[in-house]
Amino acid sequence: MNTKAPAKTVDVVVVGAGLSGLAAARTLQKAGLDVHVIEAADRVGGRVRSANVAGAHLDLGGTFVGPTQDRIIALSEEVGVKRFATYVEGGNLMHWGGTRRSYRGTIPSIGPIALVDAGRIQSALDKLSRSVPPGRPWDAPNAQELDAQSLGSWMRAHRATASTYEIFAIASRATWGCEPDELSLLHALHYIAMAGGLDLLLDTKNGAQEEHFVEGTHEIAARVAAELGEGRVHLSQPALSIDQTGDVALVRTPDLEFLARRVVIAVPVWMRQRIKVTPSLGPDAVALGQRWPGGVLSKAYAVYDRPFWRDFGLSGQAVSDRGPAVITFDASPEDGSVGVLLGFIGGKQARMWDSLPEDERRLRALNGFAELFGEQARHPRGYLDQRWVTEEWVGGGPCAAPAPGHVLPYAKTLIEPQHLIHWAGTETADQWSGFMDGAVRAGERAAAEVIAAVSNASITDKN
Amino acid sequence: MNTKAPAKTVDVVVVGAGLSGLAAARTLQKAGLDVHVIEAADRVGGRVRSANVAGAHLDLGGTFVGPTQDRIIALSEEVGVKRFATYVEGGNLMHWGGTRRSYRGTIPSIGPIALVDAGRIQSALDKLSRSVPPGRPWDAPNAQELDAQSLGSWMRAHRATASTYEIFAIASRATWGCEPDELSLLHALHYIAMAGGLDLLLDTKNGAQEEHFVEGTHEIAARVAAELGEGRVHLSQPALSIDQTGDVALVRTPDLEFLARRVVIAVPVWMRQRIKVTPSLGPDAVALGQRWPGGVLSKAYAVYDRPFWRDFGLSGQAVSDRGPAVITFDASPEDGSVGVLLGFIGGKQARMWDSLPEDERRLRALNGFAELFGEQARHPRGYLDQRWVTEEWVGGGPCAAPAPGHVLPYAKTLIEPQHLIHWAGTETADQWSGFMDGAVRAGERAAAEVIAAVSNASITDKN
User: Where is the Amine oxidase domain (chains A, B) (predicted)?
Assistant: First the structure.
C-alpha cells in the first residue's frame, strides 16, 4: 500500500462516480480527453444504489423519472436501460388525523375546505417560484427577503391551516429530507422553479414519479462506468488532496496519484470539505462546504408475493401524517410478478427512525404500511431499508437542504470554478437539481467548462 | 514518512490542541492518566492565536475575558498569564446613517425613541433567554417553536425598528459571525443564557470584554501545552481515523498511531466530519457535523505610535453601520506605549471583505477606522488582519452558528459520547459556550467523563 506507482499524467480527474461524475467523464471522453474517475466507495452510483430482495429489484436511492427530465432519459436510452410507467391505477390512500381515506390525484382529500386552503398555498408557492430564474436564484426580485425566510415561516405568515402545513411538511420531508423550518424559502422556490412547478415535482403521472427503470437506476451508472473502459474508474479511492501548481493539479488517493490539467469534483456539497485543496479554496467556498447539509431521507421497501393492494382497487400510493413512511408508492416490477411497496421516511420522522435498530425499524415501517394497506402488509417475504445519512461517502440525501440565509451568499460559489477545479453534482444543476436528471446535467455542464478551458489552453500553447 | 513506529499504547488521545483540548489533557494528566494530544495545525491554540506587529502583541482570535468566566481565569492564573482592564475611558463612537456621534454605555445613542425600542427588544430577548436552561436547550418551554424561528424573523415579528434591527444585526455579526436570519432563535437565547444575559455578553466593563491578557491569550495555550511535558503534544498531525474495537481505539495521524482507552475530540463541530470514525457515528452525529457551521468573523488590527483617540476623550470603542468593522475596541497594551485599534468584521460584511486581496482589505479597514477616529487612523505603523474562515484547521469562528431547526434535534447529540469518543470544544460547554471560558469548561467536562469511564472500567477489570 505504501509503494505507490509514479503519478499518472492525464487530462482530467473526476472525483466521484455518481451519475454526475460519470456523465462528466463520459462527455469528456467523447471529446477525446484522457479521463480517470476516482470513487471513495467500493461501488459506483453515489446516490443511486440497487439491491435484489426476494426476487425484486429495488432502487435504494434515485428511482423515478418524469417528463422534461431529458438528460437522464437520453443517457439511460444510450446505455439501453428501459423504462416503464409507475403503477397509478385505483385510489390513493391517506392516513390523516387517525382516519384512513381514499382519494385521487396528488393532494390528499382532507375535506373540501382544507383542500381549498392547500390549493391556495400551492398556487402561491408556484406563482412565487416563477419569479426565481432557474440557475440564477440571486436574480429573483426580493431574493434577500426570500432567503431570509424558511418555507415554514412563509407558510405561517400566509396563515396556512394546520392540515395544509402538514401536507407541505410531508412534501418537504420527502423532497428535501427536512422540516419546512429548516429550509430557505428561496431554495424551495428555486428548486420548484428548476423542476418546472409543483405539479411536475410532486405528481406521479405527468410528474417526476411517472416512470421507473426496468433494470434499475444503478444499472445506468454501471453501464456508463463500463463504457468508460477498463481501468478508468478506481473504486475505494477517496480523493485525499488536490494540489494545484501552475496549470497542473496533483490528485492523491490512498493508492494512486494523478497529474491532471483539470479536476471535476462531483460529490455532494456537504462532502466537499473532506478533500484537502491547495491553494485553499476561497473563503466563500470554505463556508459553503459547512452550510449546505444533506437532507435526512430514508427508504423502506417491503416485497410481497403479489401487489395485493391492487385487488382492493388501490394504487399503492399513500400519504400519512403518522409515518414513519409519510409517502408510499407501488414499486413493483412491470409484470407485477411480486408486489413492492416503497415508503419514504424523511425529516423529523427519519431522525427518530434512523437511530433505531434494524428489527425495530422494520417493525415500525411495516406497521405504517399495515395502517394503510391492511394486515397483509405486515408479512412481506422480504424487507430492506436504506438510511442515506449512514452511507459513509454520501452522508445524506436526496439533496442539500440549505437553511435561511445560506442560499443568496453562496449560490454563485456553488458552481464557480476554483482555479483548475470545476464542480458537478446534482446541487450544481440549473434544471431538476436534486434529481438524477440534474446530476447528469451538472456533469455535462462541468465537462463543457473543462473542454472549453482545455481547448483555450491548447490554443494559447500553440501561439 | 511511510515507515511508522508501532502504535503507542496510551490512556487517552486528545484530538485538537486548542484551549479545550489542552484543558482536557491537563485535567486528565493531573488525574494520573497517560495523555497525548494530536493537533492538525503546526501550532497549538486553535481559535486563539497571536502575532507581534510593530511592537504590539495582537490576539488574533479569543481576546477578552470578563466576570463569571471563572475557568479561563483560573487556568490563566495557574500558568501565570496576567490580565489588565480593557480601556474604557471617554466616549464611545458610532457611525450611523452617515453621521458620527459619541455616546456612553453599550447601546449606541441612536436618539431617544430608537433607544427605547432597542431597550424593549433587549429586555424581551433577555427575558426569553431566561426560559432556556443553560446546557439543556431542549428543556425550554416552546423549544420547538423557538428553534423554528431565526433571530431575524423573531425581531421582525416583534416589530423591531430598522435601527434596532441593525443594532442587533451588528451584535449578531460580532457574536456569532452571521446575520440574524441565519441563526436559530433558540440558539441565540441559549447562548445568551449560557453567558448570563445580554449585558454580560455585550458589555466591556462588567461584561465579557472587561479585561484582556498582558502576554496574550495564546500564551495560556502555549504554557498549558508546555506543562504537559516533552513529546505530549504532536503538531501537524491531523487525526485521519479512529477505529474502535471493543474497548480500544486506534487513532491514526499521517505519522503516528495510538491505541487508546478513550478519545476526546476537541475540534469545532463543523470540522468533526473530517475524521473517519468506525464504527461510524450514529445518524444524528453525522447529520450534526453538516449542520453547525462556523461563523464568519474576521479581525483587523492597526498599530499606531500612540492611542491618539484618547487625546480626544475617546475610548476607542465604536459601532458602525457601514463597516467593514462594525465594532471596534482599544486593544493597546496596558502601558499605552503603542496604540492598537481592533475591528470586528462579521456576517455579510466579512463575506464581502474576506474575499478581497490583502491591500484592499487593509485599505477598507483603515478607511472605516478613519471614518470613526479621523484621518490619523489611515496611517498606522503596522496592520494585520485575520480571516478565520481561511485558517485551514479552524475554518470559521468564533463559534458555531446553527440555523433554524438545527438546534433542538441535535443539541443532545453534540455532547453525547459515541462509544469510546467524548466531545469537547467550546460548542459543547454549558456556560460561556463560544468563549475561551466555555472551551476550558468543555475540556474539563470531557476529561471528567473520561476519568469516570476509565475508573469504572478499572473497577470492572478487578472484579
Answer: 19-451
- Residue A291 with chain B: CB contacts under 8 Å: 293
Which residue ranges of chain A lie beneath pLDDT 70?
A: 1-4, 105-111, 458-463
Task: Please tell me the distance from the alpha carbon of residue A140 to that of residue A146, in angstroms, as a whole number.
Answer: 9
Query: B278, B286, B296: best mutation site toward chain A, by most A Cβ within 10 Å?
Result: B286
Contact at 8 Å (CB) between B318 and B92? yes
Establish how many alpha carbons lie within 13 A of residue B355's alpha carbon, considering only the half-sphere containing its beta carbon: 16
B117 interface with A at CB cutoff 8 Å: no
Task: Report the alpha-carbon distance of residue A439 to residue B305 in Å, rounded.
Answer: 58
User: Which pLDDT belongs to residue B5?
Assistant: 73
Eight-state DSSP code of residue B418: B
Which of A147, A181, A270 lies nearest to residue B405, judging by beta carbons?
A181
CB-based contact (8 Å) between A291 and chain B?
Answer: yes
Secondary structure (3-state) at B449: helix
Q: pLDDT (tens digit, 9 = 90+) per residue, A21-36? A: 999 999 999 999 999 9
| CA dihedral over A172, A176, A180, A185, signed as positive or negative | negative
Give pLDDT tens digits for B412-432: 999 999 999 999 999 999 999
Cβ-Cβ contacts under 8 Å between A and B: the total is: 121
* Closest CA–CA distance from residue B229 to any residue of chain A (Å): 31
In B149-282, alpha helices (H):
151-157, 162-176, 185-195, 198-202, 217-228
What pTM did the predictor assign?
Answer: 0.95
Residue type for A199, please? D
pLDDT at A101: 87
ipTM field = 0.94
Annotated binding site for FAD: which residue ranges of B?
Answer: 20, 39-40, 427
**pLDDT confidence of residue B459:** 63
- Is the preceding peptide bond at A398 cis, omega within 30 degrees of 0? yes
Please say whether the beta carbons of B47 and B67 come within 8 A.
no
Chain A residues inside the 8 Å CB shell of B389: 283, 286-287
Burial of A80 (0-12, 13-18, 19+ CB in 10 A): exposed
**Which of A181, A273, A283 has its CB closest to that of B148?**
A181
CA atoms within 13 A on the CB side of B325: 33
